[in-house]
Amino acid sequence: MTSSELFDAAVKAAEKSYSPYSGFSVGAALLTSDGKLFTGCNIENASYSLTICAERTAVFKAVSEGYKKFSAIAVAGSNNSDFSTPCSPCGACLQVLGEFCGDDMKIVLADGEHFLSEFFPLRFSKENLK
């Protein structure tokens, strides 16, 4: 799957967003190492801390289906259906990605390809627990 196709899948996932409070729709498309695609969208809640991001929705869906190796994720976000401005993952989503992915995990945004190491160079990991 190309980065462009992955990003298009993220945009399509954003269309399912439930974001009545912020008005900011986010979609994510997560590609497993063996080519399976999982999508997610942000789902807001009136009790704001219970909101979940699109990226974590996609990761949790994949993990709940037995997948734990990922090669890429695309993230698309907008408050007006124009997904041309990059929308990077938040810190919580980067931490969750870091649980399953190495520094070379590809993150596709509207401005092109990036890597997890660019956004999250010093993440907390299981090595910190020793």
Description:
The protein has 130 residues and is of the alpha+beta class. The chain has one domain (3-129): Cytidine Deaminase, domain 2, CATH 3.40.140. Helix content is 28%, strand content 23%. The chain has helices at 3-14, 54-64, 91-100, 116-119; strands at residues 25-32, 37-41, 70-78, 106-109, 112-115. Strands 2-1-3-4-5 form a five-stranded mixed sheet. The longest helix has 12 residues, at 3-14. 35% of the residues are buried.
Task: Describe the secondary-structure layout.
Layout: H1 3-14, E1 25-32, E2 37-41, H2 54-64, E3 70-78, H3 91-100, E4 106-109, E5 112-115, H4 116-119
Parallel strand pairs: 3-4
Antiparallel strand pairs: 1-2, 1-3, 4-5
Keywords: Hydrolase, Metal-binding, Zinc
Pfam family, one: dCMP_cyt_deam_1
Cofactor: Zn(2+)
Summary?
Its cofactor is Zn(2+). By secondary structure, the protein is an alpha+beta fold.
Could you name the CATH class? Alpha Beta
- Average pLDDT number: 96
**Helical stretch tally:** 4
> How many separate domains make up the residues?
1
CATH evolutionary superfamily: Cytidine Deaminase, domain 2
* CATH third-tier fold name: Cytidine Deaminase, domain 2
Uncertain parts: none
Helical content stands at: 25-40%
Helix and strand pattern? HEEHEHEEH
Query: How much beta, percentage-wise?
Result: 15-25%
Secondary-structure class: alpha+beta
What's the story with the biggest beta sheet?
A: 5 strands, mixed
Counting DSSP E segments of at least 2 residues, the number of strands comes to 5
What is the level-2 CATH architecture name? 3-Layer(aba) Sandwich
Distance between the termini: 38 Å
- Radius of gyration using CA atoms only: 14 Å
Strand order of the largest sheet: 2-1-3-4-5
